Amino acid sequence: MLRPHLRSVTTDGLNAPITFAAPLSVPSTRRGAASLSLHHFAPKTKNRRVPRSNVAAPDEHRPNRVAIIGGGLAGMATAYHLLNSTARYAKKRAFSHTDLRLTIFDPAEPGSGGASAAAAGLLHPFTPRMKKRVWAPLKSINATVHLVEQAQSCSQQPLIAYPGILRLALHEKQHNDFRIAAHRFPDELELLQPNQVADRFPHLIQNVSAIFLKKAAVVDTPAYLQALWRLCQQSERIEWRRQAVHDVRHILGNDTASFDTVVICAGAAIPTIEGLSHVPLRLCRGQNLLLKPREQSYAHETPVISGKYVVPDLFGHTPGQQIVAGATFEYDYQEDNPETFTQHLCKRDTDRALAELKQPLHDIAPGLIDKCTVHGTSSGTRALPPRSADGSIPIVCKLSGTDRNTSCWLFSGLGSRGVLHHAYLARMLAHAIVAGNERLIPVDARRLQLSLPLSEVERTVAACHG
Ligand SMILES: Cc1cc2nc3c(=O)[nH]c(=O)nc-3n(C[C@H](O)[C@H](O)[C@H](O)COP(=O)(O)OP(=O)(O)OC[C@H]3O[C@@H](n4cnc5c(N)ncnc54)[C@H](O)[C@@H]3O)c2cc1C
Q1: Ligand 1 centroid from CA 47, angstroms
Q2: Region class of 88: left (phi > 0), else alpha (psi between -120 and 50), else beta
Q3: Under CATH, domain 11-117+221-281+388-465 is a member of which superfamily?
């Protein structure tokens, strides 16, 4: 088992001390170098401090029995940080973070539910046009790499690889955008001319330029979540109940059988939970085609994204080779049973995925589908947040409407970038829960005022008292 040497560094806006693993080596993956380093994406700018006047007085409520609804990337990372990164906030409120008892409710097993189980695992900070980075890029990447490093101590196999990612310029405008981007971020991006693309990637479309994201990584998301769960279990303060929660009010309360704190991390299923249909998420199912090349020589070494992606099996799970090609964007998809997003696959799904993906994949890698056998699909539903001027920013907030002895929090809207954003926001959310202070969550993420409506009976009682 790997035992990383730990040292203390400061990363978040409030200068909270957290421990980060020193750079750590894991066995090489079959085709990608898997050396892990926190400093791979070292921040170039100083972190912004939150002015003291912006930090509100904490709530009276102190968390003790915490329920997390949904154990995907959002829920699992929140659990990890509640267990491990909240000591200083608990101490300030005269209790110990080791008093926290956590229960994750999820009908699926760790690493097998929701969009997280279908994620291709691509980790990089750039927008599709490459000229900008997405919201909170460096804090997010560092937090993800840190958490993967922690989880690595509970896994024998590498959980992350650094093969880089290639993005092809399929038209002139893209070429110009990539040229500007390579000039702007020379440490991270390399512009490749058409002859270089042809030499290095002969199986891809020819006569196009490309940009290479030198530091981009791929996370084996299901294996990472399973390892993170094993790590959380070491605390002996957490349990997993394979059970769906359809109404938060059934588990939130002050009696001994209830939870005083509930954190809702059910991804695309959130609008189906009683009282939460108003959460402004746009749902979009994504399917991947799982391909097996017929010829051994037809090998993809480097993940490619150009509208769609083609990602080789860097972690060597499948005998022979597997390529994950995706993903569809199905905005009109209606799920009969939203808890089982990844399980409902049938020929109709594969046909739909093939119909949507065949041409765009051909534009990237001509003949890819013809040279492979489609041996299945995987799917998940993205929960897309409302777009802001800074792009897609996930939703993390405290829900109003609970009494003063309980609290309810929501973490969703990770959209298409959950691997990137989950760990940073989970840490901030865990701090906010234990400090009883929503303002520890980045202001952009808590921009929405959402409530958990009281039941009709409680509403009547509240009105009488009011
Ligand atoms: C095909 C595809 C490819 C993707 N590729 C990438 C990528 O390469 N890089 C990237 O950064 N992001 C990617 N994403 C996005 C990423 O997967 C999501 O942003 C992320 O997984 C969302 O995590 P989550 O925890 O919020 O939700 P989910 O992963 O959906 O987790 C929700 C959990 O809640 C459980 N649940 C549902 N209903 C209930 C209930 N009523 N009670 C209790 N539990 C419940 C589910 O079983 C599930 O485990 C991809 C998404 C898809 C669909």
Answers
A1: 29
A2: alpha
A3: FAD/NAD(P)-binding domain (3.50.50.60)
